[in-house]
Amino acid sequence: MKLTHSGVLCASVLVAACGSGGSSFDGAGEPPASTFAITSANATTAAGASWDAVVASGDFSNLGGSLGLTAAVQGGVSKATQSFKAAGLSSDSGLAVPVGPDVLPCLSGGAVTVSGDIASPVTLTTGDTFNVLYELCDDGAGEVIDGTIDLTVRDFSGDLLAGTYLLSMDAVLTNLQVATGSDTIMNNGDATVTLDTEQTPYVATGVSGTSMTIDASASSQTLSNYVSQATLDGGMQNLPYTMSASGALNSTELGGVVQYSTPVAFSGEGTNYPAAGSLLVEGTNSSARLTAVDDVNVTIEVDSDGDGVIDETINTTWAALAGA
Description:
Layout: H1 43-59, E1 102-105, E2 111-117, E3 129-138, E4 144-159, E5 164-179, E6 184-199, E7 202-215, E8 220-233, E9 240-251, E10 256-269, E11 276-283, E12 286-292, E13 297-303, E14 312-317, H2 318-322
Antiparallel strand pairs: 1-2, 2-3, 3-4, 4-5, 5-6, 6-7, 7-8, 8-9, 9-10, 10-11, 11-12, 12-13, 13-14
């Protein structure tokens, strides 16, 4: 799908990195009011942009990968987004807590410098802080990352060396830029990330934040009061996943604000699009409901006057939605 502006870190494993599973995960408050009127003419664009927002918010859960800490399991909706693999660049450091500054060379040029103020060199403790500085870091796949991520540990339990843990971190992105051959994506904002690998290979993660702005050459999006959750069972051959999200989206593609939520969580398998679930996009006295018929087809039900009666049903595909 057209997510050149919404991926950030290791997005190819999206669905393993945007949910909370059995862990507690609080919302981010009430989103701002909608200011965009949804009609039959623009419903597909509104649904596509909102699906982008769902994917984008999930991507930010991979921020822990900057420290070699992630709940990501290879699987995810790789067809739904670009593969920004910044998180994998520091994998050579394993799961060791950095004392820093620890300079990690990138695969094809540049470096990632990790420094921190930590209470213990063998585990994570509430209040531990880390600064991750990407300096023109080239991962060898046509993407160059530059900018800063600041991380503060909220809570941690489990075993780092065994890779089974429950971790919550606050992250602040400052001019985190991902340059590709076709675009440059700039990210600024905050995210609280929860990674749960206690029942690995079943993993669950969550993301919430007050504001995240994602700027690209052709568009700008701001996610407000956003929450994203998902699970993935890496022990099953078909890699079943679930994903849900809510928040507000202010996009230049729309010229206004819409609210989005998943009344029925999306679910699917492996690298396929969701085969079930729905996404409700609410505009000013209007709405559009995107429903997965299967992992190829979707319907969009449009209520353009907010009276609760469907005015039009658009039958389309996940692939077509990408070009909306």
